[in-house]
Amino acid sequence: MHLLQITSGFPENPKTMFKRVDAHQHFWRYTPDEYSWINEKMQVLRRDFLPAHLAGEITTAGVDASIAVQARQTMEETQWLLKMADEHPYIAGVVGWAPLSSPDFPAQLENLGSHPKLCGLRHVLQDEPDDRYMLRDDFNRGIRLLKDRNLVYDVLIYARHLPITTQFVDLHPNQPFVLDHLAKPNIRAAELSPWREHLRELARRPHVSCKLSGLITEADWQRWTIGDLRPYVEVALEAFGPYRLLAGSDWPVCTVASGYQQWWQTLTTLLSHLSVAEQEAILGGNAIRVYGLKGPNA
Fold first, then answer.
1. 106-121: buried (b, 16+ CB within 10 Å) or exposed (e) per residue?
2. Domain annotation covers residue 92
3. Which residues contact 194 (CB under 8 A, 6 or more apart)?
4. Is 298 a domain residue?
5. Tens-digit pLDDT profile for residues 136-180
6. 297 in a domain, yes or no?
7. In this structure, are residues 209 and 254 in contact, taking their beta carbons and an 8 Å threshold?
C-alpha cells in the first residue's frame, strides 16, 4: 500500500504524487438502538463494520487511504474514530461530530483539535426537523471556530436544503465546506430539476467542494445502471469542475446496492473521459488537499 504524501496544492507530477483516497466511509459496532435508521431493507448493515473489514476491501480496490466519517452524534464516537485512526495507518483522517451549538463546544474543540488526524466535523443536518437549523446563531458560532483549527465542515443534507445551504456557506466565506453525496438527488426517479439548478448556484462559491459518493443508494438498489448515475456526475463536473470533487464510497452503506470494488470501477468508468490529471485529482489529490491529509510517516 502506498503512503500519502503531504501536499498543499495539486500534484505537479500526477504519476508520482497520485494516491487514491476514499473520502467518505463509516465504522460502527451495531446496536439496534444506536442505529435505528438501519431499517428492514438494510439488513446487510445490521452488523459490525470495523477497520479490519475495510482493510481487505481497499486493498482489492486499489485504494490507498480513507477518511472515516461520523455515523453517530456523540463525542464518544469521535474519540473512538480517532483511536482507530491511530491504530490503522490507512485511516488518514476523521470527520467527527462535536456539539457545535453548545456553549461547551470551544472547550471540547480545544481537546479534539490537538489530534493530527481530525480533519473535519459534521452534524446530521438532514435529520433536523427545522430545515433552517444551519442558520441558527449558536450553530454558526461553532462553525466560526473551525477555520483557525484548519477543520473542514461536511454538509449532510437533502436536495431540498440546497438553497438554505447556499445562505449558510455565504456566512463563512473563508471556511472550507464539503457537500456530502451531491445533496442526495432523487436518482431513482431520474429527477434533475430543481436539484441541478440549486447545485450550480451553491458551486459558485469557491470555498465549497463536493463528494461523489452515496449515489447508488439514491438510485434503485437492485436495478441501477451507470447510465442512471451519469447525468448527476456530469452536472457535478460542470458545476464544481474536476478540482473540487472528491471520490467517496459511503461504505458500508453502499453495500445495500453495490460491492466496494464495483463502486470504484463504476466511478472510474464515469470519469474515464477526463484527463489523467483530472481523474487523479478527483480520486485522491483533492481529498489530500482539501482535508490536509498527511501520511503516516509525516
1. eebbeebbebebbbbb
2. yes
3. none
4. no
5. 999 999 999 999 999 999 999 999 999 999 999 999 999 999 999
6. no
7. no
The answer to whether position 224 is within a domain reads: yes
Asked if 251 contacts 51 with a C-beta cutoff of 8 angstroms, the reply is: no
In this structure, what C-alpha cell is assigned to residue 192?
434533475
- Whichever domain contains 105, its CATH number is 3.20.20.140
Q: Cell match 482489492: residue?
A: 60
Residue 251: which of 103, 51, 84, 78 has the closest Cα? 51
Query: Which three cell numbers, joined as nine digits, stand for 193?
Result: 430539476
Full domain range(s) for residue 233: 14-291
- Which residues face 223 on adjacent strands? none
> What does DSSP assign to residue 28?
B
Q: Can you tell me the distance from the alpha carbon of 175 to that of 163, in angstroms, rounded to the nearest whole number?
A: 18
Work out how many domains the chain is built from and give that number: 1
Backbone angle region of 94, left / alpha / beta, with phi > 0 → left and psi within -120 to 50 → alpha? beta
Per the listing, cell 448493515 goes with 45
Q: Which tens digits make up the pLDDT trace of 196-229?
A: 999 999 999 999 999 999 999 999 999 999 999 9
Residues 31-46 pLDDT 10s: 999 999 999 999 999 9
Farthest-apart Cα atoms in the chain, separation: 49
